Amino acid sequence: MNDAPHRQHHDMGGLPGGPVDPTDRAFEPWQKRIEATVRLALMSPKNRFTVDQFRRAIEELPARQYDSLTYFEKWIAALSNLLVSRGALAQVEIDGGMARRAAAGAAHDAADDHAHDDHDHGHAHAPIRVEEPKGPYQALADALYALLIAKGYFTPAQHRELIEAIDSSGPAAGARLVVRAWTDPEFKRRLLDDGRAACKELGIALNEVNLVTVENTERVHNVVVCTLCSCYPVFILGRPPDWYKSAAYRSRVVREPRAVLDEFGTEIAPERELRVHDSTADMRYLVLPMRPRGTEGWSAERLETLVTRDTMVGVAECRVRP
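Structure (tokenized):
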């Protein structure tokens, strides 16, 4: 009898995969709205499920649906399933909300088309129409947003404020942590011992349960992945880039990390050990990159310019540009 655990469809770690596309792409407004809706639903006192249960709901999406959906579409599909299974919402409420959203959208489009047709096309300041996706999962996101507000999970102001908070976080907080560790040996020790407490010292609030800091040295280079989804310290590094969430990165970096780093233009010497750390729903990793030689006497502000998101994930190293 084979007692080996069955690999679920979402578990990409170690599977074959294609090249990693390291291109950075801006997050679209609809993606930010879904992210804020899910995070606020999880944080609400009215919530009836945990982060682990939300993650499991993503993982349990049928394989065909999992492969066909984009990252945030998976989020909103999983949230909808959880809200119904936990009795927080009825499916009929969600269906009604989607129908109302569709009717309102059609009315808005008709009015907009009429106004556009009547507009003087020779006017120098004709309005620019910004199109957003109008698929079923965008409609589902709008319906859940309205229903959760109506049921007191969060307010429109809280939703807007969370989007703004994540927008403004970026990797700047992580760079502050790194530079403080470079210049203060006692703080470095505390950061390595208890990342969450060290963040608190600098006024950086974490939603994650735990933050583990791993240090790059002349002998060891660290890189971080989440083979199951995209666990990532958002309030330290900002939103995870597309490549971090991609099947190619999640599958290949644990089996051929040097080859993956080569695709980012990062060559790790053969004599350096390369360690791969797999994040979880309740534990995030931060790479403490090596301080480049020749930066003695630099100000903290100047040092922070050397620290990027990619150096704190481990797909790049800090360099002094000539």
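Residues 91-118 form the longest helix (28 residues). DSSP finds 16 helices and four strands in the chain.
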